[in-house]
Amino acid sequence: MRIKSIALFATVLVPSLVLASGAEHHTVTMWDSDFKYRVLNFAIFAGLVYYLVANPIKDFFRGRSEGIANRLKEIEEKLQATKDAKKEAEANLLKAESKAEEIVTDAANEAKILSSNIADKNSTALSMMEKQALDKQALESKKATRTTIDNLLNDGFENDDIAIDEAKVVSLISKKVA
Q: How many CB atoms neighbour CB 10 within 10 A?
């Protein structure tokens, strides 16, 4: 602050001392005129303006460039975070795709196992049904044979007109059975 007041005092005092002149008359040339003093005054004024305004302007532009640099840094950090998130999402996508393929493969294998189990159960059930049908057919055949033999024997014994001997019974039974 003291330097500023000294510079202001010098700005006012120096031109008044330099420009004070006597009453004599001169021929005016370029170098004898007050041009030198005007240039000196302008230089002092420009120096003072630079001294007073330069630091705030520098601070303004420095602050502005730092603000721009900070915003650029934030944008770069966001961009990097976005890139990282993209890489993570791609990694998750690859994991999900491999998991989906694994699930599809497991489902296909499970479907094959289930279908083979169902086919085995069906073939077992079919063979059991065939066996039951054969057993039932054999049982019905035996029942029919017994019924036929019973009918034949009962009819043969009730009829007193016919004399039956053993050879005739055996031949009759073999004819009915065959």
A: 12
